[in-house]
Design brief:
eight-stranded antiparallel β-sheet, 2 domains, Jelly Rolls, MetI-like fold
């Protein structure tokens, strides 16, 4: 059998663990950078960017639920008008039409409906009247928008329509058709639900909804008006959204948790490397038994191994920051790595100290001492090269503890940038249990579980390798 085959046979667990870790790392870097950069900027996920269809619904189910249960929850979708408007000329004015059709075929209606349009008034001299009407499958016509614009104007006029704007006209239409009891119950909270509801059966009204924009030109027209509407679209904020749904801050759960995973991995690796490196030098120094400094180091190692470092880290972070305990404190990843490492170096230091004492009894080091070599020379030239493999293994073994500590610190409200702990603290509130938003926790649990299993498989093989050494 080849060397490669022997290695794969003897290290099956390590290979499987590496594959799991590679999968977790890949999940943390495939998310678009713009979404990652706006992880904590909550306005990014709302309607504060005109003409960009990034509005997300709140607590929307994963779209895969429609695959399992059938067409149950209306998904989030964007319908754009493509082409030029239909023009009709009359005696002394011109009328343009743009129609968008939405096919409603789900048991539960969308959370909201957003209509946006950008008007180019460069070639318009005079007044135009813009009207947007929604025509339901049962013939009810709901007026959503009506206003005047005056050209010429080089700045595009932006039209925003929210679901609540339909309330007054929706009430009028329902009263006109005899649904007085239903009309009186409409409010900002349930307006969109009634917009897609059959009042007679109180169920969702399936069929085609036509959203029509009409533009009446009352002034003189110079040049082409076919491009008067540069962007016209309808954004349906559904009850289902994306692969893993949305959370209480309207963030895409898959994007948010993958971004938080990236921050968790980065900080955890920094903690593992720094704490193990610190433990390496302290452990080597403590192995020399003929000095007071070595005895002090061994006492520190034993003391730090018994300390509950998570509460101590939280207290230290709070004490070094401005603000009160209830404030969400924020630290960069490198600073957090340094602070946590100051409490987590003792465990690798203890193992390195024991291995160093064993190496110091080897004949080649005794010979070096007889030749007058000092402590620093022995540490750099003899201990360090022989401890390098063990040092790397301790970094891997420190990762699980680092991840746990980083997540716990984040869950206490101490922000380390995007972090699974801070994300869980943000979403795991009473509202999540009230609406039964189980899906917001699934990716975090999955990532942590996969990461733990991957590291455990690698650690098992490493510990077996060094068990006899120590």
């Amino acid at each position: 059998m080849s060397k490669k085959g022997v290695f794969l046979r003897d290290h099956k667990l390590i290979m499987l663990g590496v594959l799991l870790l590679a999968f977790v790392v890949a999940c943390s870097i495939v998310i678009p950078m713009r979404a990652q950069n706006n992880y904590s900027y909550f306005r990014y996920w709302l309607r504060y960017y005109p003409m960009e269809d990034r509005e997300n619904p709140k607590y929307a189910y994963p779209e895969i639920i429609n695959v399992v249960l059938g067409p149950k929850y209306a998904p989030t979708t964007t319908i754009r008008y493509i082409g030029e408007p239909s023009l009709k000329s009359y005696h002394n004015f011109l009328l343009a039409y743009l129609n968008i059709t939405y096919n409603m075929k789900y048991d539960h209606p969308p959370q909201d409906i957003v209509i946006e349009a950008s008007l180019n008034l460069t070639n318009i001299s005079g007044t135009i009247i813009v009207k947007i009407i929604m025509v339901r499958p049962d013939g009810l016509k709901i007026l959503g928008f009506k206003d005047k614009f005056v050209g010429p104007d080089t700045t595009p006029a932006i039209i925003h329509i929210f679901g609540s704007n339909f309330i007054d006209d929706l009430k009028k239409e329902l009263l006109k058709h005899g649904y007085s009891s239903v009309a009186l119950n409409i409010s900002d909270v349930n307006a969109v639900r009634y917009l897609f509801m059959d009042p007679s059966s109180m169920k969702t009204l399936s069929g085609k909804y036509t959203i029509s924009m009409s533009i009446l030109f009352l002034g003189s027209i110079k040049g082409n008006v076919s491009n008067v509407v540069e962007n016209y679209y309808v954004r349906i904020l559904g009850k289902a959204h994306g692969l893993m749904g949305t959370d209480n801050l309207r963030r895409d759960v898959l994007v948010a948790t993958s971004t938080a995973l990236k921050g968790t991995l980065l900080t955890s690796v920094i903690v593992a490397v720094l704490s193990t490196t610190l433990g390496l030098f302290i452990g080597m120094y403590s192995a020399f038994s003929n000095s007071i400094g070595s005895k002090i180091m061994r006492a520190l190692i034993d003391s730090f191994n018994t300390l509950p470092y998570v509460p101590l880290i939280a207290i230290l972070l709070w004490a070094t920051a401005t603000g009160r305990m209830s404030t969400n404190l924020s630290y960069p990843a490198w600073m957090m790595g340094v602070i946590i490492s100051l409490f987590m170096w003792s465990r690798p230091a203890k193992g390195i100290s024991g291995l160093s004492r064993k190496l110091l009894g080897e004949p080649f080091i005794e010979a070096t001492r007889c030749l007058g070599a000092g402590r620093a020379h022995i540490m750099v030239r003899h201990l360090l090269p022989n401890l390098l493999e063990y040092y790397i293994s301790q970094i891997v073994l420190s990762l699980p503890r680092s991840v746990i500590v980083v997540v716990l610190i984040g869950a206490l409200g101490i922000s380390i940038g995007p972090n699974l702990g801070t994300y869980i603290a943000q979403v795991a509130g009473p509202e999540m249990f009230t609406v039964s938003a189980w899906w917001v926790m699934v990716p975090s649990i999955f990532y942590l579980g996969t990461l733990g299993v991957g590291i455990a498989l690698i650690s098992y093989d490493i510990e077996k390798r060094f068990r006899r050494t120590l």
